[in-house]
Amino acid sequence: MNWWKVAAAAAGIGLGAAGIAKVVIDKRKKDLDNYLLPAPDDTQSEEIPALKADILSWVGMDSNVLPVTLSFATPDAQAADVFQEALAKDGLSSSYDSVSNIVDVLYNGEMTIDGLTFLAASLINAIKQTDAQYQGYTFAH
User: Fold this and answer.
1) pTM of the full structure
2) N or C: which end of the chain has fewer CB within 10 A?
3) 10 Å Cβ neighbour count for 120?
4) What DSSP string describes 84-95?
5) Helices 113-129 and 47-56, interaxial angle, to 10°?
């Protein structure tokens, strides 16, 4: 009879520990979501959350889909030049179509959270330096 009490106490402790672990994991996930996809403020372009959401949806994808091309519309050639220079500082390659004022950014890096967070930060930095507008992305395969 006494061992039933010990077994019930051990089961209760185990369930309590599992509940605490779930709360901690859920909090970490929520903090990561808030860090990677914060609510936009009034000074933030509407394209930035969409860009982040698109890029972070690729986490863990097979690298066979690479390269991916992200397209951005720019107001003019000068803005496109500033946009491309900002990207080049972070090691990203891009091309510019002067007829449509579209800058295509080619990404062939890792599909990890670190690699994609770096990509998002680089693109957001370049967007903030110009009036570039995110148009979307396409995979090569």
Assistant:
1) 0.66
2) N
3) 19
4) HHHHHHTT-EEE
5) 160
